[in-house]
Amino acid sequence: MYNQQPNNNIPGTPHVGVTQQAQRPSGMPCPQCKGFIPVSMQQIITESSIFCPHCGLRLNINHQESQPAIEALKKFQQAQNDFDRRSRSM
């Protein structure tokens, strides 16, 4: 996954807090047109393909070949959900 991060090392660039960064969509650059493809962990885990909203390129997700990575994403997503649930109950 690719998550665009601001460059806070540029003089005169305001610091972007963690909360603002966390609200940015996750995704990746399109290998064809370089446009940003927003994609969530849930989409990668459950869907068979994703599409570039700019050029329409279809990217197929091979769940069989990607099984170790898919399992790691599932574990990460579960940990993130557990953290979010605990944070709300505090």
Structure characterization notes:
This protein is of the alpha+beta class and 90 residues long. It is 37% helix and 13% strand. A two-stranded antiparallel ribbon has the order 1-2. A two-stranded antiparallel ribbon has the order 3-4. The longest helix is centred in the C-terminal third of the chain and has 22 residues, at 67-88. It is flat, with a radius of gyration of 16 Å. The two termini are 30 Å apart.
In short:
The chain has three helices and four strands, in the order αββαββα. The chain is an alpha+beta fold and 90 residues long.
H-E order: HEEHEEH
Helical percentage: 25-40%
For the CA atoms, what is the radius of gyration?
16 Å
Coarse morphology: flat
What fraction strand? 5-15%
Question: How would a crystallographer describe the biggest sheet?
Answer: 2 strands, antiparallel
Number of strands: 4
User: What are the low-pLDDT stretches, counting only 5+ consecutive residues below 50?
Assistant: 1-21
Q: Structural class from helices and strands?
A: alpha+beta
Q: Numbering strands along the chain, what is their spatial order in the largest sheet?
A: 1-2
The average pLDDT is 80
Distance between the termini: 30 Å
Number of helices: 3
